[in-house]
Amino acid sequence: MANLNINRSVTDVFYRYKMPRLIAKVEGKGNGIKTVIVNMSEIAKALSRPPTYPTKYFGCELGAQTQLDAKNDRFIVNGSHESNRLQDLLDGFIRKFVLCPECENPETNLIVKKSSISQRCIACGHVANIDMRHKLTTFILKNPPEPETTQGTEASSAVAAVAAATPGKRVKRGKGSKEQENGNGDGNTDRQTSNESNHSSKRGSKSKDEDDDDDWGEDTSEAAVQARMEQLSGAAKTMTISEDLEKTEQERIDIFYSFVKQKKMADCIVGTEKEKELVGEAERLEVKDKAPLVLAELLYDANMLQQIKTYRSLFVRFENEKAQRYLLGGFELLVGNVHPDALMPKVAHILKEFYELDILEEEILLDWDKKASKKFVSKEVSKEIHTKAAPFIKWLNEADEESSGEEEEEDGVEVVYSNSEAPGVKAVAKTPNNKPAVNGVANKEEEADDLNIDDI
């Protein structure tokens, strides 16, 4: 049976806090139909909560009666309920009564007082009050957790991992660790403190007690410490991701800017895997639409016309309409504010390069040309850019009209209307400019008005 992340919003496959997938079995029929949660005890153990709490939570959310038989390990919710529905409700219980609101770590203990319930995080030390408006809090106040259920196995393993990652320090697992925190240990705790002080005063000697400690202690070799630290870093990474998404859009864009800048300095921009990493970071920060604006500023300079081809495969990964519009915004910034002397004369050629390399679509370019905007540069500068782009836009429109005319024209066929020839269809010779010859004579009309974009 596959395990799930306790915090299912975390997609990291190496997330250390796991729980069994909920299994529900529907029994009975008619008015006596009920849903048995087969593995509620295992789930509750993983959450370090009594199994009666999540079962009662289901009853509160579904408006159904519950049967709590802890002695026979049987937990029932009246009515027919699918496993997926109950699994989604369990996420709500975990969010309200298990996860730390500060670090989103499930290593928490419930502290029940006369009329309030608080939650203390073993990982970060944060203490927060539970929202007492939920109906389950009444049940918890009447049925506080027993001491052995408040100390989770996951919490113990986390303390052991941190202790092992710090050479020279030992933390006893089990009840002793909590007593040491409060300073209320028994004689064994006092002896351990004494041994540690003796050990610090006599660095070169080893006592018999220390040899015994080595028998049960964690492996403190460099490789083992590194492996445990990598496991811990996964949770830290998850916390960082969550914190980033809580920031404003401008702050997230600044984070992406710094990320791209570091990649450019390390020459890690071009290449399929490197490009996927950049796109992934933009998606993680939820700034994919505006990412081309940042990329244009960092990757293009006065040699933009040559650089467009270099970074083509990266920019085509941002293919939606909004991303293309922000790329045009970055183009305006570079041309109007950053490198006006070098880039302003090349505006038409730059846009043509974007178009021919399929980075910018024709519809986006034509729509952009309709109005000079002051969103990225001043109105005057925007108008100047549009004036410089006019030859390209004219070429784009004429190319579109010519392609439409060619589709309507039938190749090499002309209907003859003449008094001297028999009516019917006649093959007609084509001239180099694709205009049909009339009665065998080529049309030599001048094409002076045609515009060649490469002659700009």
Task: Report a brief summary of the structure.
Among the domains are: 3-154, Defensin A-like; 247-408, Serine Threonine Protein Phosphatase 5, Tetratricopeptide repeat (Alpha Horseshoe), CATH 1.25.40.
Can you walk through the features of this model?
The protein is α+β, with helices and mostly antiparallel strands. Among the domains are: 152 residues, Defensin A-like, CATH 3.30.30; 162 residues, Alpha Horseshoe (Serine Threonine Protein Phosphatase 5, Tetratricopeptide repeat), CATH 1.25.40. It is 51% helix and 10% strand. The protein is built from 20 helices and 11 strands. The strands form 4 sheets. A 4-stranded antiparallel β-sheet has the order 3-4-6-5, covered by helices on one side. Strands 7-8-9 form a 3-stranded antiparallel β-sheet. A two-stranded antiparallel ribbon has the order 1-2. The protein is elongated, with a radius of gyration of 36 Å.
> Mean pLDDT, as a whole number?
76
The helical percent reads: 40-55%
Q: Name the shape in a single word.
A: elongated
Helix/sheet category: alpha+beta
Percent in strands: 5-15%
Features:
456 residues, alpha+beta, Defensin A-like, Serine Threonine Protein Phosphatase 5, Tetratricopeptide repeat, 4-stranded antiparallel β-sheet, 3-stranded antiparallel β-sheet, 20 helices, elongated
Indicate the topology:
Layout: E1 3-5, E2 18-20, E3 24-27, E4 34-37, H1 40-47, H2 52-62, E5 66-69, E6 74-78, H3 83-97, E7 108-112, E8 117-121, E9 127-129, H4 136-142, H5 147-150, H6 153-164, H7 175-182, H8 187-201, H9 208-216, H10 222-245, H11 249-265, H12 272-284, H13 291-299, H14 304-310, H15 312-315, H16 321-338, H17 340-343, H18 347-356, H19 362-369, H20 379-408, E10 413-416, E11 424-427
